[in-house]
Specification:
Layout lengths: L2 H8 L2 H4 L3 H7 L5 E6 L4 H12 L9 E6 L7 H10 L4 E5 L1 H10 L5 E5 L20 E5 L2 H15 L5 E7 L4 H13 L3 E7 L4 H12 L3 E4 L3 H5 L1 H10 L4 E3 L3 H4 L4 E5 L1 H16 L15 E6 H6 L6 H6 L2 E3 L1
Helix pairs in contact: 4-13, 5-6, 7-8
Length: 323
């Protein structure tokens, strides 16, 4: 990635203005690829690199239209309509909020969704995993399998674990929560639901966990929860609460463990689907993919702060150990 592309990726509108003239010149001559994303982060970098690996270079033989919605969900319809008005050849939309907005905005432009919380068939977005139909496909997480594995890993780290809290976003995470609930029941673990919908809900959720004297916490995924990562980690350390998340950023920020899909791989997979669509593949015939790579990250420094001795066999399986 050259300097100008990097500045455009990480900067705001002012940083992007030098490319405006070339974008006007290239419009209609090269494919235009839309990306609807919550924040600019390493996943965006992975997506752009995936496009480069497939031969698409922004400003040369492709135009990448990135639209960032942050936590202001009310902007999503306008941003999705903007990508449609730009006549993007394909739109990649990360999170349920984003691709639902894109699907409302167009039923003709191919949409590639990325989501960790939902079942695409049960939610009605796809007819089947093998042949989604319509103008939609994507990369989705297999929730029941992951939920059971996360509880298994946390119990390896905390052998006395019998009372488990689950922090989840009830606006979009019901499928994810039910899968975790079933996995906890199968593991013989008491489960305490800590649901949130707004930033203001986290304090009450943490207070409930303290009152219930939980032994550990599974942190489920959502844009809201990920945006409060630092607060969750700080609270967990303060109250000596072991946590596991599917986001590898959590242990890198001070959480105990992460076990989940490699998000960079998902975004690179979305870039591969973009390439196939631009080369003529029908989006509705591209099967919905599941992650194939899962990373285990353990923060050993946090384990010591919590008074935990992580079993050598668990450490040996880790993809990354933070000292």
């Amino acid at each position: 990635m050259n300097r100008r592309e990097f500045i455009t990726l990480l900067g705001g509108p002012a940083a992007a203005w030098p490319l405006a003239a070339s974008a006007q010149e290239l419009a209609g001559k090269v494919p235009r690829i839309g990306l609807l994303q919550r924040i600019r982060n390493e996943n965006v970098v992975a997506f752009i690199q995936g496009l480069r690996d497939a031969g698409y270079i922004d400003g040369q033989n492709a135009l990448i239209e990135t639209r960032i919605y942050e936590t202001t969900l009310d902007r999503l319809p306008d941003l999705a309509n903007e990508l449609v008005d730009l006549k993007c050849n394909v739109i990649v939309a990360a999170s349920r909020y984003a691709f639902e907005a894109a699907m409302r905005a167009t039923n003709t432009i191919p949409i590639v969704g990325i989501d960790l919380e939902s079942d695409p068939v049960a939610s009605g977005w796809a007819k089947s995993l093998g042949r989604p139909g319509g103008n939609f496909t994507g990369l989705f997480l297999d929730l029941p399998q992951l939920a059971g594995k996360q509880i298994e890993v946390l119990k390896e780290a905390v052998p006395t674990l019998s009372h488990l809290a689950v922090l989840w976003d009830s606006t979009i995470g019901i499928v994810q929560f039910r899968a975790t609930e079933a996995a906890a029941r199968a593991a013989g673990t008491i489960l305490q639901s800590l649901s949130v919908q707004r930033s203001e809900d986290f304090e009450n959720a943490f207070d409930r966990a303290i009152r219930e004297r939980v032994h550990g916490m599974v942190v489920l995924s959502s844009p809201l929860i990920n945006s409060h990562r630092s607060q969750i980690v700080e609270w967990a350390l303060e109250h000596r609460l072991p946590t596991i998340s599917l986001f590898t950023q959590f242990p890198r920020s001070g959480g105990l463990i992460a076990y989940g899909p490699n998000l960079a791989d998902l975004y690179r997979g979305a870039a591969i689907y973009v390439d196939r669509i631009l080369k003529g593949a029908k989006v509705g015939e591209l099967p919905i993919q599941r992650p194939t790579r899962f990373d285990l990250v353990i923060n050993l420094k946090t384990a010591k702060a919590l008074g935990l001795d992580i079993a050598p066999m668990l450490l040996a399986r880790a993809d990354e150990v933070i000292e």
